[in-house]
Amino acid sequence: MYYLEMSGRRALCVSLVGAHCLLCLPGLGSASPLLLAVLCTNGHLMCAGCFIHLLADARLKEEQATCPNCRCEISKSLCCRNLAVEKAVSELPSECGFCLCQFPRSILERHQKEECQDRVTQCKYKRIGCPWHGPFHELTVHEAACAHPTKTGNELMEILDEMDQSHRKEMQLYNSIFSLLSFEKIGYTEVQFRPYRTDDFITRLYYETPRFTVLNQTWVLKARVNDSERNPNLSCKRTLSFQLLLKSKVTAPLECSFLLLKGPYDDVKISPVIYHFVFTNESNETDYVPLPIVDSVECNKLLAAKNINLRLFLFQIQK
């Protein structure tokens, strides 16, 4: 039984003995202070991360996702958030990962980012190559003794050259995108990957878009999970790869650059990567290339959705 402070008074008493996720025990949102609690139709609680994982696993196994407790069907349309539990749990004490003190979950993130004296921080001289990471309360002592401000010009130039190389790689991508935007023929469209199963004895999940037209040509996109490994549902690491297929006949080689980005209404995190291919009637499909999703959590978000909605950009290279 936990007593919650409301308007400075102990006004509400809420019993949260059963308020735990059915999968990631012992506590709902124990890994994060930003909690989303999801209810099945019979009232059993799951955290949002486990809920998405269940939907993704069901998609991979071609099964209906079910509640791990009562086995009723679950989906984004059948389940709902429990705002009362979310509010209550946000006020429960949670341990700071740095100083191990207890704080209400609602302020834990601010404490860890701005207030905790044991939070991990960096030396202010990191811009000239200092690699030090340590607790905030040791920062002043370290900076007073840091050797980097006393390095010679030649030593600093070597460090800055290494940092410039890393920075140039990042800038190269954005400069490439800006260069592509100056091309005469540019096309983009929203694409919707729909799930299908192969005809193998052990079927595998794959995705395919309806045919679409960009740059006056007809195209199709296909995608697969973990490069079509036999049981991707047994793997914690999940990836998506895709290929672009030209369905039109062309009279001359069609040289294109292309990239996939998230759709306008999705929150999935995709890093832009530019791919390049020369399409001909004999070679009309690219190899499978990685969809640059940040991590497996983002991949599960895509797999849990009914369809995957992304945006394709095509740039025709004219010689």
Topology record:
Layout: E1 2-6, E2 9-14, E3 37-39, E4 45-47, H1 48-61, E5 80-81, H2 83-90, E6 93-95, E7 102-104, H3 105-115, E8 120-122, E9 133-135, H4 139-145, H5 153-180, E10 185-197, E11 205-208, E12 212-214, E13 217-225, E14 240-246, E15 254-262, E16 275-279, E17 289-290, H6 296-304, E18 308-316
Antiparallel strand pairs: 1-2, 3-4, 3-5, 6-7, 8-9, 10-11, 10-18, 11-13, 12-13, 13-14, 14-17, 15-16, 15-18
Helix pairs in contact: 1-6
Give a quick summary of the entry.
Keywords: Metal-binding, Zinc, Zinc-finger. The protein is α+β, with helices and mostly antiparallel strands and 319 residues long. The protein is built from 6 helices and 18 strands.
**Into which percentage range does the β-strand content fall?**
25-35%
Q: Name the CATH class of the domain at 183-316.
A: Mainly Beta
Helix-strand sequence: EEEEHEHEEHEEHHEEEEEEEEHE
Q: Nearest-angstrom radius of gyration?
A: 26 Å
Low-confidence stretches: 1-17, 29-34
Measured between the Cα atoms of the first and last residue, the distance is 73 Å
Average pLDDT figure: 84
CATH names the topology of the domain at 183-316 as Apoptosis, Tumor Necrosis Factor Receptor Associated Protein 2, Chain A
Number of beta strands: 18
Helix content range: 10-25%
Structural class: alpha+beta
Number of helices: 6
Largest sheet: 9 strands, antiparallel
CATH architectural category of the domain at 183-316: Sandwich
What would the principal axes of the Cα set say about the shape?
Answer: flat
GO cellular component, one term: nucleus
GO molecular function: zinc ion binding
Family: Belongs to the ZFTRAF1 family.
Domain RING-type: 21-71
